[in-house]
Specification:
433 residues, alpha+beta, 3 domains, 8-stranded antiparallel beta sheet, 3-stranded antiparallel beta sheet, 28% helix, 20% strand, globular, binds zinc ion
Length: 433
């Protein structure tokens, strides 16, 4: 038997074979590898250069072009990030700049870079609400029908072509229907109604009836066949503020977030959470069209991940667990360790932005926008789901969403909030990233 030697590293208890010691200079393999890693790191730090791709560039269009260009990955290069986020640069574009970017996107398409083109076009719609009417024929020529939001301002002519194509084009039918849902003009509403009355032969190949695609565009077909919008065009971001003690004045905020509630969840027994507490009499929230003082949207943040949760409300602050809630078959065991309420503290640093933002700002989740908002279009992570009111069974109206990533360090997923104002019922649901 060979005698093993102690590793030369101070504090390392490992022993090694003499043969290993000869190879490594007396160190065990983990120690040797750690030394090599540290050496590499030292080399990188000593030789790394900072590169500012945006140096002396002031034209926002050029800045966005750089942001969209692929970066050469090199451990010896540290790219200095631009001080503004992409969404901020987009939001501040002038109409002329937005036009130039649109032209650039179409040039990319011409050159075969469909993905970047699509990303720029979607950004222009979401952050600028720019109409893409002029380039829709080009997209269609190239067989690009996705994402549907690109088509929302389609001309009557493009819409008619889409309506024709959806009858024949089995491969693209799902995307074509999404695009039509986004267009949602009188002709589309009429056609959805026709399809509901006499389902086309291809309808059985779909997971949902054709008229259900209206949800993707944020509306539903009423029983009488008209269009009923399911959201508000006004939209205010829910932003994080750094509370400064000296200047903090207890000014009346139109909205508060993530307040603990004394009522317990009948399913899991943990405390309910008021996701948002809205002062509906505040001028900023008049767009909700509600008469009263307060609308509170409560839920169980645990159980909401498993099913839609309804609450009976009034517009004076009441929010009670609805008898219409049906306990799902599966709920995880409540875990008291996990049930810390640290997010309640995070809620205190959230407030409604001073100025409204574009309705579609967060409508395309994969762009990575700041999602949390009251009003506007939802940022669906999965398919669009507007819950049916537990009382009247109409689709409920979207009133806001909270992005858990913004709230907890390792948080993810979005809580969506809905209201049926007629029945005074709220609903919350959750989608996981
Ligand atoms: Zn060692
Ligand atoms: Zn619960
Ligand atoms: Zn209702």
């Amino acid at each position: 038997m060979t005698d093993r030697l102690p590793c030369r590293s101070e504090g390392c208890a490992a022993t090694i074979l003499p043969a290993t010691a000869a190879r490594t200079g007396g160190y065990c393999m983990p120690c040797k590898q750690e030394m090599e890693r540290a050496e590499r790191q030292r080399y990188i730090e000593q030789n790394r250069r900072d590169i500012d791709l945006y140096e002396e560039i002031t034209d926002p269009v050029e800045i966005l072009k750089i942001m969209h260009a692929p970066l050469k990955r090199d451990p010896l290069i540290r790219y200095i990030p631009y001080p503004l986020k992409r969404e901020e640069v987009y939001s501040a574009l002038s109409p002329g700049e937005a036009d130039r970017l649109l032209t650039f996107a179409l040039d990319l398409l011409e050159a075969g870079d469909e993905d970047t083109c699509q990303e720029i076009l979607v950004s222009l719609v979401c952050y600028q609400n720019k109409s893409l009417e002029s380039c829709i024929p080009t997209l269609m020529e190239r067989g690009i029908y996705y994402p549907g939001i690109l088509f929302k301002d389609a001309s009557a002519r493009s819409r008619d072509e889409l309506l024709q194509q959806v009858e024949q084009d089995k491969d693209n039918r799902n995307h074509l229907l999404l695009a039509l849902g986004w267009i949602g003009d009188d002709q589309v509403v009429y056609q959805f109604q026709e399809w509901r009355t006499v389902p086309p032969s291809w309808a059985e190949e779909l997971y949902v009836p054709p008229e259900a695609y209206a949800h993707e565009g944020g509306w539903e077909l009423t029983k009488k066949g008209s269009k009923r919008p399911l959201l508000y065009h006004d939209s205010y971001a829910i932003a994080k503020i750094v509370p400064s003690k000296s200047t903090y004045a207890a000014e009346a905020e139109p909205a508060e977030f993530l307040k603990e509630n004394s009522a317990l969840c009948p399913w899991c027994g943990s405390g309910l959470t008021t996701l948002t507490d809205l002062d509906i009499s505040h001028p900023k929230l008049h767009f909700l069209g509600l008469t009263g003082e307060r609308l509170r949207v409560c839920t169980c943040v645990n159980c909401s991940c498993y099913d839609t949760i309804y609450m009976d409300v009034d517009f004076h602050g009441k929010s009670e667990w609805s008898q219409a809630n049906i306990k799902p078959e599966y709920l995880p065991e409540p875990d008291s360790e996990e049930d810390d309420r640290s997010y309640a503290a995070a809620g205190q640093s959230l407030r409604l932005a001073d100025h409204p933002r574009n309705s579609y700002y967060a409508a395309y989740w994969t762009l990575g926008p700041a999602v949390s908002q009251i009003g506007g279009y939802p940022a669906w992570i999965q398919n669009a789901v507007y819950p049916s009111c537990s009382c009247c069974s109409q689709s409920m109206t979207f009133i806001g969403q909270l992005d858990w990533e913004q709230i907890e360090e390792y948080g993810e997923g979005i809580y969506y909030m809905f209201l049926c104002a007629d029945c005074q019922v709220t609903a919350t649901l959750f989608q996981q990233t």
